[in-house]
Design a protein that fits this description.
410 residues; alpha/beta; TIM Barrel; 12 strands; 43% helix; binds flavin mononucleotide; binds benzoyl-formic acid; FMN binding; FMN; Aldolase_TIM
Length: 410
């Protein structure tokens, strides 16, 4: 399997479709994945195995779920045009970002507190991503430390997502950035839409905030951070382990300070991070242009899967406008509402160079740990490859897969 920047081999091109071929070749002897190939069934099946609180947390969205529902519906407004008598055998799914070649255009979206879905949590996901040649984006709210995730991810490509503390905690931010750099995270993804949690009725009904549980899950990065540890001791006169509840609440306040930074503050991150910086949560042309003006390297067109602000537009609807405005000046990634291989093809066609998947792999993690995440990633890559092949589109590159490949149906 190709890792970053190694040449893509014929075997790499064939790998996504090998999953399907194996099922049919082996028939009933095929060792079944832990759950279905039908992507629409992942969500209801995960519901059956999760506690009400964990389920409410992952499936839950802001407000009346209007933004969430629009995210899903937006994909159905586009059709992929099928072309005949074109040889698009084993389409090349590779994509290049910041001078690095990635074997797959699919990435693991940053998702916090993964141990509430499976005791292996981020270790299972980071291992699965590495085995499938998929980019792992690590959340600031992980229930596993930066160093342990890096170990599990091994040679796999990995980026670090920052929940950005306020200026009073710049020393903590610097410490975290240094740790991420040292642990081999190459790109910084700064999430802009979550300086406070959205209005989430399901979590409020369950009285559920993963940080504030008695076993304080999701605070691992803070609890293992020497600067956070020192500051906590100075302020409270005791060590973290002497008062886990207070420390967890303190870490939650640190990474969700309740107020947004301004565009000017990005200079601070630029000064303290030597690699590319990507802003996650962009939804307008104006903000995308501001990102370009601020010298950023990439944006993730995302509305956080509809979990933050309700009543907004679907993320996919915003993508082509933004791509047309700034696509030649900045790298564009996308998430929110991706549920199957055809969805990935559509997001790529509408201007994304990389597509992040959120809830689907969390359902895989819930249903089958590392194998479950691998099954989700293999299914999505396999279906994407199959879709492009049958549509006569030989690759995922912008020169081949673009708006001309789609028809707007409604
Ligand atoms: C359970 C859960 C936790 C998440 N935690 C984070 C996080 O820690 N940092 C972040 O930037 N985004 C977080 N997200 C948002 C995802 O990165 C992504 O934007 C979103 O899930 C995409 O929408 P989708 O679930 O429809 O694919 C989280 C999403 C879910 C479902
Ligand atoms: O739930 C989220 O969307 C999110 O970003 C998060 C992750 C961990 C803890 C709190 C919020």
């Amino acid at each position: 399997m190709a890792t970053n920047n190694t040449a893509i081999t014929q075997a790499d091109l064939e790998a996504p479709l090998a999953y399907e071929a194996e099922v049919y070749r082996k028939g009933l002897k095929f060792e079944r994945p832990p759950f279905t190939f039908q992507t629409t069934d992942w969500e209801p099946q995960a519901k059956e195995v999760l506690s009400a609180s964990a389920w409410g947390y992952v499936y839950g969205s802001a407000g009346q779920r209007e933004t969430h529902n629009k995210n899903l519906a937006a994909f159905k407004k586009w059709g992929i045009i099928p072309n005949r008598l074109v040889d698009a055998n084993y389409p090349d799914l590779s994509t290049t970002l910041f001078g690095e070649k990635f074997q797959s255009p699919i990435a693991i979206a940053p998702v916090g507190v993964q141990k509430i879905f499976n005791p292996e949590g981020e270790i299972a996901t980071a291992t699965a991503a590495s085995k499938e040649g998929v980019l792992y984006i690590m959340s600031s709210a992980s229930s596993t430390s930066i160093e342990d995730v890096a170990k599990a991810n091994g040679e796999g490509p990995r980026w670090y997502q920052l929940y950005w503390p306020s200026n009073e905690d710049n020393d903590i931010t610097i410490s975290i950035l240094e740790r991420a750099k040292k642990a081999g995270f190459t790109v910084l993804v700064v999430t802009l839409d979550t300086y406070m949690l959205g209005w989430r009725p399901s979590d409020m009904n369950n009285g559920y905030n993963p940080f504030l549980r008695p076993d304080s899950i999701g605070v691992e990065i803070g609890f293992t951070d020497p600067v956070f540890q020192r500051k906590f001791k100075l302020k409270h006169g005791k060590d973290i382990k002497e008062d886990l509840g207070t420390a967890a609440a303190e870490w939650a306040r640190t990474i969700f300070p309740g107020r947004s930074h301004g565009w000017d503050n990005l200079k601070f991150l630029r000064e303290n991070w030597s690699g590319p910086i990507v802003l996650k949560g962009i939804q307008t042309i104006t903000d995308a242009q501001r990102a370009v003006a601020a010298g950023m390297d990439g944006i993730v067109v995302s509305n956080h899967g509809g979990r933050q602000q309700d009543g907004g537009p679907s993320s996919l609807e915003q993508l082509p406008k933004i791509a047309r405005a700034v696509g030649d000046k900045i790298s564009i990634l996308f998430d929110s509402g991706v549920r199957c291989g055809a969805d990935i093809a559509k997001a790529l066609a509408l201007g994304a160079s990389m597509v992040l998947v959120g809830r689907p792999y969390v359902y895989g993690l819930s249903l089958g740990g590392e194998e479950g995440v691998r099954h989700v990633l293999k299914s999505l890559a396999g279906e994407l490859s199959c879709t492009l092949h049958l549509a006569g589109i030989p690759g995922a590159g912008r020169d081949i897969l673009n708006e001309d490949c789609l028809v707007r149906e409604v």
